[in-house]
């Protein structure tokens, strides 16, 4: 199991590194070379509308399917083809319905935001939403099959082709509409490749003559709490952007999205670890090995905070020169939001190793309740704070709500597994001390930063200070990590 997790983690980490580099190049290229803050905000306002639509275009079906694949491929593999076929039928029906509705009402949606230039972007919604939905489906399905490297392949192809396509259209002078077309093309190619791999994989399973009674019903029933969780994700990740688009300007959307993208850029390794480890919880629970499952969670928690609390502290300190020298002075209004989102990075890192684990432990319903309630709280807080204090209010709403949700989800893990809460607490305290020492060194050296090269040198110094203290304190075992 350890070797299987390590192989999956390495494959997913490579995919996340590729995704992160591709997103980073796109972020810098779009913001500093090709688009103005208004155009940047308009592009990602359209993408936020599509992202919110993804909730209804998949309805929790991919993760519900993955959950039952993980169970039946071991106990009754003849049901696997039936699970895939049924889930694809359900997914196609809802996906096409949502895509067509967006296409039909794209003018009205643009009018809702008071941005007529948004309409031609939303018209691409049919292809964008359909291919993104299929892409998300195959990526999650391969997790259920425990073919993590296959998910990684889809991620790599999608992001590399998206990067190349967007840059080609931008260099050709097609502007915002060209950039969005590049995103569409990337998702199209990723979806086609993923479906090809899935077809190949299904050839390894002989379908049983009869479908297990109630299987379709169980598949749909389990997708309901997952839909609620996805709905909360939409609130956390997209509704704030949409509300900024309603209450403020496209430029404000651009500043806010840039800050969020930087936080997503930093979070990639935690995404890899959580995605890879999660299926093992279901296997350990099925075998009654709860102590092993608890040990896996404690270890992943410790290493997640060891990386991300110092990363957040460093981001708070260098946020202003980072924006100044990478994106230009036009985006300096994003600095405060980036600093607030540093706390969100820590919460999100913990969420990445906790979220899917609860699904595989059979606690999707309770996780959905926690996400749904805090998501509603986040929405209300956004409505209150965005009109009063602007984009900083949206960031504060997200951080506060996410912190509450993470606390509840850790409690759910503790109620399911013999996890030591004092151990988790001690890890946070010890790492916070390391982060403060590292941040102090960076603050002292900050006046010497006058350009991008000196900023990168300061980051390297910060990393070396963090690594030295982490190793000498015993928090980081280099030999174990390398093995």
Automatic annotation (TrEMBL):
<keyword id="KW-1003">Cell membrane</keyword>
<dbReference type="InterPro" id="IPR002797">
    <property type="entry name" value="Polysacc_synth"/>
</dbReference>
<feature type="transmembrane region" description="Helical">
    <location>
        <begin position="40"/>
        <end position="61"/>
    </location>
</feature>
<keyword id="KW-0472">Membrane</keyword>
<feature type="transmembrane region" description="Helical">
    <location>
        <begin position="154"/>
        <end position="177"/>
    </location>
</feature>
<feature type="transmembrane region" description="Helical">
    <location>
        <begin position="241"/>
        <end position="258"/>
    </location>
</feature>
<feature type="transmembrane region" description="Helical">
    <location>
        <begin position="384"/>
        <end position="412"/>
    </location>
</feature>
<feature type="transmembrane region" description="Helical">
    <location>
        <begin position="88"/>
        <end position="106"/>
    </location>
</feature>
<dbReference type="GO" id="GO:0005886">
    <property type="term" value="C:plasma membrane"/>
</dbReference>
<feature type="transmembrane region" description="Helical">
    <location>
        <begin position="452"/>
        <end position="476"/>
    </location>
</feature>
<feature type="transmembrane region" description="Helical">
    <location>
        <begin position="118"/>
        <end position="142"/>
    </location>
</feature>
<feature type="transmembrane region" description="Helical">
    <location>
        <begin position="305"/>
        <end position="323"/>
    </location>
</feature>
<dbReference type="InterPro" id="IPR050833">
    <property type="entry name" value="Poly_Biosynth_Transport"/>
</dbReference>
<keyword id="KW-0812">Transmembrane</keyword>
<keyword id="KW-1133">Transmembrane helix</keyword>
<feature type="transmembrane region" description="Helical">
    <location>
        <begin position="424"/>
        <end position="446"/>
    </location>
</feature>
<protein>
    <submittedName>
        <fullName>Polysaccharide biosynthesis protein</fullName>
    </submittedName>
</protein>
<dbReference type="Pfam" id="PF01943">
    <property type="entry name" value="Polysacc_synt"/>
</dbReference>
<feature type="transmembrane region" description="Helical">
    <location>
        <begin position="330"/>
        <end position="350"/>
    </location>
</feature>
<feature type="transmembrane region" description="Helical">
    <location>
        <begin position="12"/>
        <end position="34"/>
    </location>
</feature>
